[in-house]
User: Fold this.
Amino acid sequence: MRFGDISQAIGNTPLVALPHLSPAGATIHLKLEGHNPTGSVKDRVAKYLIEQAERYGQLRPGQRVLEPTSGNTGIGLAAICRVKGHPLTCVLPENTSEERKQLLQLFGAELVFSPATEGSNGSVRVARELAAADPDAFMPFQYANPANALAHYETTGPEIIADLPDVTAFVAGLGTGGSVTGVGKRLKRWNPAVKVYAAEPEYGDLVYGLRNLDEGYVPEVLDLAVLDGRIKVNSRRALEWTRRLADEEGIFAGVSTGASLAVAVRVAKRLPDGAQIVAMSPDGGWKYLSTGAYAPGDVATIAERISGVLWA
Ligand SMILES: Cc1ncc(COP(=O)(O)O)c(C=O)c1O
Assistant:
């Protein structure tokens, strides 16, 4: 395939079945979003955030973009802003992995750090303060911007339908809620019987990129009406399934993939025989290597050792 620039090479990611990890009577398929140009699902969102803002006159040529992001959206935005000529400031927790920081800097983004202890909520707080002080900066704010879910409604969802018309369920980790909302609505429009589940970390337990709604913030992008269930998963299980994916299926994914896979396996047991379940794989494992998540050894020990590093 040929493309006019890198923003046009976003999407059309592979949908890959898991013959070894799917429980009897069901097939789980992973939507491998790590195949996007900067390596995550957030390339789709970044493209929509910028292009919609340009289209509707909220973002002028050359205007600064400012966004709180735990990494993936920032990396996607950094590449898109480069190719479209916008300077970018990202606000991220200070304990974000080194790979993410370097990728952002590589694309010329300015980094502002928020306290590690406040997680992504701290980045939102700091970004809001910066936006209030600089009215010229445009903050797309993926948590409340309809372009986030629209990217999934118009691209991820239709790709799944084209590749697997008899899809019966969809599972994605809950971050901004853009994936579950956009894909979920599109799949239910296709077939109202499709079930949609969100993988949510347990209260007080952190899985990179995901949030627990009971911790106080429900993103405006998330439409709870689209969900048939929010299913809890802890960070040790997320890591365990991420590692099994490499061991048994030869797929190297980020840890939030393990969270949605763990939930997909649970959901498979509730659904009638023949279920075709799509689980979201938001990114590959590359950006997490330095955390030790994939080092040899026992999962429980590794999960314990890296907690607070990986789960920030
Ligand atoms: C690694 C990772 N997994 C999962 C998610 C959750 O996706 P969404 O924001 O669409 O809910 C994100 C982004 O927030 C992410 O960066």
Summary: The pocket of pyridoxal-5'-phosphate is lined by residues 72, 173-179, 208-210, 254, 256, 282-283 (CB under 6 Å).
